[in-house]
Structure formats: structure tokens, C-alpha cells
Amino acid sequence: MMAATDNTSDKELKEIHFDILKWKSSLRFIEGEIHFINQLLNSYVFEPTTPNLFERLQEFKQQIEEIEKEIQHINQGIRTHESELGGMLECDTISCDNFYYKNHILVRRTFDDFYKNFSRLKSEVFLYAGGVLKKNKKQS
């Protein structure tokens, strides 16, 4: 591996690499959360007399499908970005470095927006589900 140039410090490269590792880890965790949410939405734990229950669950399922597609897109973007890090080591001009930094910022914004949207959807699902779960009957 080549040493980083004067323009790109080892610290900056490590920070970028650390960001990438955090994103990948977060996406794996989110995939687990999505699996749980799908199981919840497809279960029979909801009060069947709830108005518009089927429609609301279908709406959540559709939104989860969109999130799953977005995860694939973001994962691909992160893999591409990660593979381009080697090019950053080859940079010998500030404009070359800036290209990689701008790309990193773009990937970060994409991930942050996705994370915010997923967190909002997850909260909506849990708030809704918590209000329409079947109540256990107490046994005497």
C-alpha cells in the first residue's frame, strides 16, 4: 500500500474508512430490524376489528419493500465508494482529493437521509402496532 500523499492524511483516510464500516454495520442491523418488522406485520397479533387494519398494514409493507430496495442501492453505493478509496491514495492534487471528499459527503448524506426515513417509518409501525395488538385475556 502506498503512503498517503501530503494532500490526504492517513487520519482522513481512516476517518473515511471508519464511516464506511459504520454504514455497513448499521445497514446489517437495519436488515435485522426489517426482518422483525416484516414478521410483525405478517403475524396475527392485531385486533381484527380495527378499522382499516388491512389497508394500514399493506401500506407499511409497501414502505418496507421500498426501504429494502433502498438498502440494496445504498449498499452498492458504499461498496463502490469503498473500492474507490484506493484511488484517493493515488491523488497528487487537491482537486483530486476534493473529488473523493465530495463523493464521501454525498454518500454520507444519502445514508443519513435514508437512516432518518427508516427511523421515522419504524416509529410509525411500532406506534401503530402497539395500539392495535390483541389483548391477552386473563385466566382465572
Short description:
The protein is mainly α and 140 residues long.
Polypeptide structure, described:
The structure is a single chain. The chain is an all-alpha fold and 140 residues long. The chain has one domain. It is 77% helix and 0% strand. It contains four helices and no strands. Helix 1 runs antiparallel to helix 2 (53-83) and helix 2 (53-83) runs antiparallel to helix 4 (94-132).
List keywords for this structure.
mainly alpha; 140 residues; disordered N terminus; 77% helix
Distance between the termini: 71 Å
Overall, the morphology is elongated
Biggest sheet, in brief?
Answer: none
> Can you give the mean pLDDT?
89
Count every helix, treating DSSP H or I runs of 4 or more residues as helices.
Answer: 4
Strand content: under 5%
What is the element layout, followed by pairings?
Blueprint: H1 10-41, H2 53-83, H3 85-90, H4 94-132
